[in-house]
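User: Good morning. I'm curious how iron/sulfur cluster would be positioned relative to this chain. Could you predict the structure with it bound?
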Amino acid sequence: MDLATLTEATVLNVGFTQTHTQQPPSFQDMLSALQVKVVSNTFDQVELEVIGLDAPIANALRRILLAEVPSMAIEHVYLDQNTSVIPDEVLAHRLGLIPIKVDPRRFKFRKGEEVHDDSNSLTFRLHAKCPLDKPVLTVYSGDLQWEPVGDQNFTLSNVRPVHEDIIIAKLGPGQEIEAELVCEKGVGSTHAKWSPVCTASYRLMPAISLKTELTGEAAEALVSCCPVRVFDIEDSAVKVSRARDCTSCRECIRLHSEAVSLNKVKNHFICEA
Ligand code: SF4
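Assistant: Good morning! Here's the predicted structure, ligand included:
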């Protein structure tokens, strides 16, 4: 296993595994060594373990996820009425950042002066007015009403914002917002509103080992110094139980450098998005 070693002040052996005498691995070699495990996949978060890549490739995948995977976002806002305290352009920007729940593969990118139709756009309407006898009306993303265009009634269903409780504006008595909102397909490198994730990150898998067997008070001191309980005591000796949870805070090597060796596996990435 190729390891980078963490010391209290620095990280050692972080360079590439490849030396000037070695040929870089071919794309096929890299693919056959690659392992991807899905650790968890929930409505708004996915965690993967990617094994067998060098850091530049793993980082390229992370950046592709942020900037090159398409999604749909509000691109044009046609305001019929805005008597709220929010300026038109700020309101339009805020609407653009609302994530829309629809499969972008069903749409084409709109090119140049192409007109909007059911193949390249989605339309929503927003109409909210605060009654005169109410002190305030909060407008939420759930107030956006999808208006199917062309065949969309038959080809799409349940098109809506991902979250219905995003606050768009607060209206005072008599204030009103009425607008038509047109979504287009785009990518995060054009504007962050098209990024399909709020962020994507990775960290290297920790590899923690004990240099010596600790028992008694020394064992308890090591176990209690770790804020995420990586160590346990079993049969009166310290054991590394949850190395994956390590946050690299370095408290264990600061206090017990004679007993603990803190490393990272250089080609094993824990990725979250
Ligand atoms: S670096 Fe911090 S989190 Fe990791 S094992 Fe040591 S004390 Fe625990």
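The pocket of iron/sulfur cluster is lined by residues 208, 225-226, 228, 230, 246-252, 262 (CB under 6 Å). The first helix runs from residue 27 to 33.
Let me know if you'd like a different ligand tried.
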